[in-house]
Write a structure and sequence with these properties.
CATH class: Alpha Beta
Number of domains: 1
Distance between the termini: 28 Å
Mean pLDDT: 81
Radius of gyration: 12 Å
CATH superfamily: Glutaredoxin
Helix content: 25-40%
CATH architecture: 3-Layer(aba) Sandwich
Number of helices: 2
Order of helices and strands: EHEHEE
Largest sheet: 4 strands, mixed
Shape: globular
Structural class: alpha/beta
Length: about 80
């Protein structure tokens, strides 16, 4: 589980590394990204820009609820 934000320079570096780790070990582990402070459109744009393939949990501002948002890789869309 990785808590991150789109504006965080170290987060930007590690997201590609985490995505590669998920791709390599995805049959044994699940990488989960958590962004607690930003709206879904901002997170979705970041996920698309970086091509992230692991699940991202987006927290709701000042609430304890969240929802799971996951970008599906292009090759999975037509299965």
């Amino acid at each position: 589980m990785n808590f991150w934000a789109t504006w965080c320079p170290p987060c930007r570096v590690e997201m590609s590394e985490l995505d590669a780790y998920q791709a390599e070990l995805g049959d044994r582990i699940v990488v989960l990204g958590v962004d607690m402070a930003e709206p879904e459109p901002v997170v979705a744009a970041f996920v698309g820009e970086y091509g992230l393939r692991f699940p991202i949990l987006i927290g709701r501002h000042r609430r304890h609820r969240g929802h799971l948002w996951r970008r599906r890789p292009a090759d999975d869309r037509h299965r």
